[in-house]
Amino acid sequence: MYEDVLALLHKTNVSYEKFEHEPVLDYETDRIVRERLGLQGTPSKSLFLKSKAGDYYVFFTLEGTRLNRGEMKELTGERLSLCSADELRDKTGCTPGCVAPFGYAHDVTIIVDNAIYTYDKILITPGVPEFTIELSTEELKKILLTCPNTVLEYKQKES
Question: Which family, according to the similarity comment (predicted)?
Fold first, then answer.
């Protein structure tokens, strides 16, 4: 997955920075690494999901956002649940806790939380815990337009 993410970054010729650091597998380590490296981007997270029909989805959102299964069902027409760690590894090669937002085979649908675009820069994982990529949300849009995947936009409903 790591190589697929980097290949897509190069293919789209976007500007980004890649940072190498100790493995990040929890929010506290992530916070410490961001502070130490002076990262300016907003932290994101991606969840790898599966429908009962066997379709796969990646929900790309901001760190701290909770998955609203009802809204996901409205958007996709399917009830989605998190994949197990084993299924995640088998299908994507991603380390659990390090799901990349893009770089997947065409049969994986990417769901992007529109809240991401309210920030100038975003931090993503390329599928492995030892690297973080920082890029502008404008560059992110270019990448998503180039992906072979169906990309759906998610907008959280006002409560």
Answer: Belongs to the PRORSD1 family.
Total count of domains within the chain: 1
pTM assigned to the model: 0.91
**Conformation bin of residue 119: beta by default, left when phi > 0, alpha when psi is -120 to 50:** beta
Question: Both tokens of residue 61?
Answer: 């959102």
User: What CA–CA distances, in Å, run from 155 to 22, 102, 112, 116, 141?
Assistant: 33, 19, 9, 10, 16
Provide the sign of the torsion angle of the four alpha carbons 111, 46, 136, 42, taken in this order: positive
CATH code for position 112: 3.90.960.10
Q: How far apart are CA 153 and CA 87, in angstroms?
A: 25
Residue 159 falls inside a structural domain: no
Spatial contact of 136 and 42, defined as CB atoms under 8 Å apart: no
Q: How far apart are CA 111 and CA 72, in angstroms?
A: 9
